[in-house]
Amino acid sequence: MLLFEDYTTALLADPTIAYADSCAFDDRSFMAWTEKQIIGDFWFDIREGGSLRTQVLGRAQIGYRTLRELAKNYSAPMRRALRH
């Protein structure tokens, strides 16, 4: 962990690097950085008119992210309350 912290400090201090991505999906891992940029996911279906499969997968991903965010928002206060 200390090596990771040293590496990150050196990376962010390098003036030749304009942007670095932690590749962390959320803010709960040790890869969580304080400065974030929203990155979008794009799904492409090159077939004319698209496909039902791509539409279903896209909607499932949106539903998953929505439910995950709701769960995080509701569970965080409960976890804090249980710690005290």
Summed up:
This protein is mainly alpha-helical and 84 residues long. It contains two helices and no strands.
Distance separating the two termini: 28 Å
Given as residue ranges, the uncertain stretches (5+ residues, pLDDT < 50) are none
- Percent strand: under 5%
Overall mean pLDDT? 78
Give helix and strand order, one letter per element, not per position.
HH
Could you say which overall geometry the principal axes of the C-alpha atoms support? flat
Number of strands: 0
Count up the helices: 2
Query: What profile does the largest beta sheet have?
Result: none
Structural class by sheet pairing and helices: mainly alpha
* Cα-atom radius of gyration: 19 Å
Question: How much helicity do the residues have?
Answer: 40-55%
Descriptive key words:
single chain; 84 residues; mainly alpha; 0% strand
Describe this entry's structure for a reader.
- The chain has 84 residues and is mainly alpha-helical.
- It has two helices and no strands.
- It has helices at residues 2-13, 52-83.
- The relative contact order is 0.07.
